[in-house]
């Protein structure tokens, strides 16, 4: 019984140490962007989408120029359910040109995910940038959605 207790205590101490170390080092490696004004628009926008698109304002918080990013998100209908059969999350690449410490409004086509235009815009949930590509050929990644934001509505 004593060995089991020692292992649990050791595991708890390691987990606490990893948590505290992670919090202390988060500052220099924090989130390099802010997202605002997120909504889904339904209908055609010439040259961008035919059925629906995701609109967002992206604030570049770095000293580098953003040249592209990949956004991950989930959509839900008015009842909170996924409007899709199968997977309810999507990952969409987007070309961009956002100067250091500047912001830009980006419109991303969702046509490849939709069979028809929805009657109403869906709620955008769990949105985060999975990857940001910079003009100097460096990348920032968040593969697990540590900086995901929730609760965007029309």
Describe the structure.
This protein has 154 residues and is α+β, with helices and mostly antiparallel strands. The protein contains one helix and seven strands, in the order H-E-E-E-E-E-E-E. Strands 4-3-6-7 form a four-stranded antiparallel sheet, with no helix packed on it. The protein has a three-stranded antiparallel sheet with strand order 1-2-5, with no helix packed on it. About 9% of the residues have low confidence.
| Measured distance between first and last alpha carbons | 56 Å
> Runs with pLDDT <50, length 5+?
14-27
Cα radius of gyration in angstroms: 19 Å
Considering DSSP H and I runs of 4 or more, what fraction of the residues is helical? 10-25%
Structural class: alpha+beta
Compute the average pLDDT: 83
Shape: globular
**SS elements, strand count:** 7
Largest sheet: 4 strands, antiparallel
Tally the helices.
Answer: 1
Strand ordering within the main sheet: 4-3-6-7
Strand content: 35-45%
Order of helices and strands: HEEEEEEE
Sum this structure up briefly.
By secondary structure, the protein is α+β, with helices and mostly antiparallel strands. It has one helix and seven strands.
Write the layout of secondary structure elements.
Elements: H1 2-25, E1 33-42, E2 52-60, E3 66-76, E4 89-98, E5 103-109, E6 123-134, E7 139-141
Antiparallel strand pairs: 1-2, 2-5, 3-4, 3-6, 6-7
């Amino acid at each position: 019984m004593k060995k089991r207790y020692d292992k649990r205590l050791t595991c708890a101490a390691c987990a606490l140490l990893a948590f505290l170390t992670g919090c202390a080092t988060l500052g220099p490696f924090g989130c390099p962007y802010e997202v605002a004004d997120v909504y889904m628009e339904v209908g055609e926008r010439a040259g961008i989408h035919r059925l629906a698109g995701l609109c967002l304002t992206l604030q570049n918080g770095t000293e580098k120029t953003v040249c592209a990013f990949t956004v991950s998100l989930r959509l839900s209908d008015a009842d909170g359910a996924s409007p899709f059969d199968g997977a309810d999350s999507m990952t969409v690449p987007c070309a961009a040109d956002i100067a250091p410490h500047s912001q830009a409004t980006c419109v991303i086509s969702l046509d490849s995910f939709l069979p028809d235009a929805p009657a109403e815009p869906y709620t955008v949930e769990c949105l985060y940038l999975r990857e940001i590509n910079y003009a100097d050929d460096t990348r920032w990644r968040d593969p697990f959605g540590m900086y995901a934001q929730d609760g965007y509505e029309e």
